[in-house]
Design a protein that fits this description.
Length: 475
């Protein structure tokens, strides 16, 4: 790696950390809670198809990220790749949008943590649990990269085991081995299924499916702190599609086969833990009193997500400072390789943003609703960066066989990512604008900020699209 972009952060993430991080980052509350709501909106067939299509997109996204990350393993790679392979103005704007996204996600998860704890302790104020758990996450991040990797590894194990047990129980119920009489696939075709609703219904669950994978690109941010990125990143990415199929498709299949899409429990599963699809399946298996267990599993998923988001926020600020998009102080790290100044900024930012959201509900809508749009913007830019990286690599005469990890089906991969994310962005804008243009503003606030940042930086610094033969590929 050239000295200009050399990281001051210490390596410490092992192959098993990255493998479980790639898996755990794509398993969040969306799978445990929102999956039931998706089936109620578009039917089991619509939910399955949405996850298949999003899984297809994610597979190509991660392949492209893996190709670039193994060639140039750097902390905050999302920002660096867009800056070096496309345009510095785009790298600047995407970096700050990424920071906005992780801060908004932390706020959502911190509040959710308090709500989940109130399930057991309803008489204790939610903010107390939120504060305590946030302090625990701070402590874990202060201990260093290795501690972060170990924590995520074991929390991901809990989530993975829960889903495996869930799917096995579901299959046994479908076959009639346990629980009631054999169910088979009758509920898939119940009431005109497996597809219900219209194109709007399908697009709404397609976007929800995409948001379930928000944060999957985190593995790229960690590349600079991996012990052996050329080996661990390909191993973590190579099985992503299989994991997506097993966990997401398997979960939706089990829920859709056992619970009719007309069930009122599915409609309310996003807000009521007691009727989470996971809890319902256990009840079908005649396993009662599982509410606390399901709450614990979801709590683990939220803590894991919040821990990863806090880690990501500090690395994004670090990368912004390294790429001269923010004050150089953001790159200051202690002897353990922790970017403590960036960490302090995030510690101060989160409480301030929470106070702002408490003062005005509109501020809360702007902050929270923009997470999904920010994710799609980031994925679009990553697709563009990968396309230009590979084209520049070929144009400059490099041998593709020298790549430590080569993405599959180029140029189809980045084209699918770019087209798919823009399609979802466009649908979101059009559908909300013609129904409620005020909500459309809340939803697309990050996109507005993104263009303001991009245009301002481009005008001030007079940047241009980097020619393919000028892309810096000498590593």
């Amino acid at each position: 790696m050239d000295s200009e972009n050399k990281d001051s952060l210490k390596r410490g993430l092992k192959t098993r950390h990255l493998t479980m991080l790639a898996l755990g980052s794509s398993i969040g509350t969306g799978l445990f809670l929102a999956s039931g709501g998706m089936i109620s909106v578009a039917g089991p067939g619509g939910a399955l198809l949405s996850y298949l299509l999003v899984g297809f997109l994610i597979y190509f996204l991660m392949n492209g990220l893996g190709e670039m990350s193994t060639y140039h393993p750097v902390t905050g790679s999302v920002i660096t790749f867009v800056k070096e392979y496309v345009d510095p103005a785009l790298g600047f704007s995407i970096g700050w949008i990424y920071y906005y996204m992780v801060i908004a996600s932390i706020i959502m998860d911190v509040i959710t943590l308090g709500i989940l704890m109130s399930f057991w302790f309803p008489n204790i104020p939610i903010w107390i649990f939120s504060t305590v758990l946030f302090l625990i996450i701070l402590f874990l991040n202060f201990l260093g990269t290795k501690t972060f990797g170990e924590t995520e590894f074991w929390m991901s194990i809990i989530k993975v085991l829960a889903i495996i047990i869930f799917i096995i129980l579901g299959v046994l119920i479908i076959l009639g081995v346990i629980g009631r009489n054999p169910i088979g696939l009758t509920n898939f075709f119940y009431g005109g299924g497996p597809f219900i609703g219209n194109i709007n219904s399908f697009f709404s669950v397609l976007i929800l499916g995409a948001l379930s994978f928000a944060g999957v690109e985190l593995i790229g941010l960690t590349a600079g702190e991996a012990d052996t990125p050329s080996k661990s990143i390909p191993k973590a990415i190579s099985t992503i599609l299989l994991r997506i199929l097993i966990f997401y498709i398997g979960t939706i299949f089990v829920i859709g086969a056992i619970i009719p899409y007309t069930s009122p429990y599915l409609l309310s599963s996003e807000t009521n833990l007691a009727v989470s699809p996971f809890a319902l399946i256990f009840q079908y298996a005649n396993i009662t009193s599982v509410d606390s267990l399901i709450n614990f599993i979801i709590l683990t998923a939220v803590i894991s997500a919040c821990n990863s988001e806090f880690y990501a926020s500090t690395r994004v600020l670090y990368s912004l400072g390294k790429e001269k998009f923010a004050p150089k102080k953001f790159t200051i790290a202690n002897k353990n390789g922790i970017p403590y100044f960036s960490m302090i900024i995030t510690i101060l930012t989160v409480p301030v943003c929470i106070l702002i959201t408490l003062i005005g509900f509109n501020a809360y809508l702007i902050l929270i609703n923009g997470v999904g749009i920010s994710t799609l913007i980031i994925w679009t830019c990553l697709g563009i960066a990968h396309y230009r990286f590979r084209q520049g690599y070929i144009k400059q005469g490099f041998n593709l066989s020298k790549l430590k990890f080569k993405s599959k089906l180029f140029p189809l991969g980045p084209i699918v990512v770019i087209f798919g994310t823009i399609l979802m962005l466009g649908y979101n804008l059009i559908s909300t604008f013609f129904t409620d243009w005020i909500s459309s503003f809340y939803l697309f606030f990050p996109l507005i900020i993104f263009f303001i940042l991009f245009i301002s930086y481009k005008i001030y610094h007079k940047t241009k699209l980097i020619p393919l033969d000028k892309i810096n590929l000498k590593r």
